[in-house]
Amino acid sequence: MRVVIIGLDAFEPRRFERLYEEGRVPHLARYVDLGAYSQFAVSNPPQSEVSWTSIATGLNPGGHGMFDFVHRNPANYALNVSLLPTKSGLGGTQFAEPFSAKTIFDQAVAQGYPATALWWPALFPARMKSPVRSLPGLGTPDLLGRLGVGTLFTTDKGLAQENGRKTPVAILEKAGAKKYKSVIVGPMKKSGPATHDFIVEQTGADTVRVTVEKQRIDLRLGEWSPILEIKFKIGFMVSLPSVTQLILTKVGDEICVYALPLQIHPLRSAWQYGTPRNFVKDSWQNAGPFLTVGWPQDTTA
């Protein structure tokens, strides 16, 4: 027998029931009609990282220790993001596991059943001794150790002056006829951040060509690029790859190209990503390149 748990964040049962009665969710309705449907109590507080961890462990927040998006250090009242706690290690500050309780996936494997957890929240960094096949979800940082912040490349200098803008703005300076240049900023190295030139050339009424790290990417207005792999040199004969995507959002009098956060490359991560390593490799090779940041649906742009 195979058991599949499909998790939908912020799933509101009353809304689902209304859509079900109206016949607007036929695929989910099929599971209800073939099996059963019932409501169960949500965790307290009803927050994503709390709920998902409660489901994964069968424990309440008092048992697994995840009780808010923000935790405090009782020794000094310093605040930290609960999904990305840190600890001191031989290589400096490292990410720590958000919780230590055993999951239902661990228990299934202990009973002799294979288990896979895809995009499950709070499973970063990977528990390298875990026999569970896993790719982490919510809580996985970007390449710079943040929860994920993209960059807007634009010729419009006024956008950089907007108050309240969460997304960094990189100005595209004129470098020729319909050609503009900026830099894309990567991870830190001894002398400062690693960077690449980011060149945008308008090639048509609604198209541009982006050149970065010897790659040429043709973009059409409103369409996403394929997932790109960009390497940054961070030391002598040492490079760190990343993954991202681009989208052309404006072309004409002004040009705007938005880049998703530079994200961990699952095959060469500076942090522990996914278990076991051969499962991560097989997923990348068989399913094609995929984004890794914990919240891939960008809501900061």
TrEMBL record:
Pfam families: Phosphodiest. Gene3D superfamilies: Alkaline Phosphatase, subunit A. InterPro entries: Alkaline_phosphatase_core_sf (IPR017850), Phosphodiest/P_Trfase (IPR002591). SUPFAM superfamilies: Alkaline phosphatase-like. This is Phosphodiesterase. It comes from hydrothermal vent metagenome.
